[in-house]
Amino acid sequence: MKIVFLGPNGSGKGTQGAIIKEKYKIPHIETGVIFRENISQGTALGKEAKGYIDKGELVPDSITTPMILDRLSKDDCKESWLLDGFPRNISQAKELYEALCKQGITLDVVIEIVLDMHTAKNRTMGRRLCVNDNNHPNNIYIDSIKPNDNNCRVCGGQLKIRSDDQDEIAITQRHAIYYDTEKGTMAVVNFFKKLCAEKGSPKIIELDGTKDVGEVSRELISKLNEQ
């Protein structure tokens, strides 16, 4: 099963993605991880990406998209993959879809976690990361996953705060990209919904991000099992 997973920062996408990865043994392809791997390995694209990252600029599509497509070409992605954090804009979505079509690869499912901007912002600022496993869900603004004081609710490990999670300007900028219905990630959502209506694929799974983490997980797995 080939899956694209979309949702704003603070929607719990990373947590749900980790659950899917473990349950279905699907390679979890994250843009940030790919950047770090290419940079650490000193690839040509990694060196280019580092130049932009070091200046605090967004890595352009001309670098990001080839990195993603190269990762999807690896042997572990022949049968299935879960693409998280990409595509972020309509240009990336079209390039990805066209590249998959040329290779005869069908995108099976697009998952969208629906969450309003205000709630997404609060949840982003309330996120706490476990030093043992970043996918252990801890958030001071979500009752069901509140940490135990300063310790991870899952394993008891120490918690840390990402500095950019407390930067309201940075959060607003990230969300402005996501909620942009003309060129941003919401335009991507609408692009795939239109393809579904016209061609029957990819299938669209919408999830209510305001629900409890466990409830979202159960609904997601139930809907994936129907595919």
Helix-strand blueprint:
Blueprint: E1 2-6, H1 13-24, E2 28-30, H2 31-41, H3 44-54, H4 61-72, E3 81-84, H5 90-102, E4 109-114, H6 117-126, E5 129-130, E6 159-160, H7 168-178, H8 185-199, E7 203-208, H9 213-225
Parallel strand pairs: 1-3, 1-4, 2-3, 4-7
Antiparallel strand pairs: 5-6
Helix pairs in contact: 1-9, 2-3, 2-4, 3-4, 5-8, 6-7
Number of strands: 7
Structural class of the secondary structure composition? alpha/beta
Q: Rough shape? A: globular
Please write the string of helix (H) and strand (E) elements.
EHEHHHEHEHEEHHEH
**Domains (count):** 1
Major sheet details:
5 strands, parallel
- The strands making up the biggest β-sheet line up spatially as 2-3-1-4-7
CATH topology: Rossmann fold
Explain this structure.
The protein has 227 residues and is α/β, with parallel strands linked by helices. It contains nine helices and seven strands. The chain has helices at residues 13-24, 31-41, 44-54, 61-72, 90-102, 117-126, 168-178, 185-199, 213-225, and strands at residues 2-6, 28-30, 81-84, 109-114, 129-130, 159-160, 203-208. The strands form two sheets. A five-stranded parallel sheet has the order 2-3-1-4-7, sandwiched between helices. A two-stranded antiparallel ribbon has the order 5-6. The chain is globular and about 50 Å long.
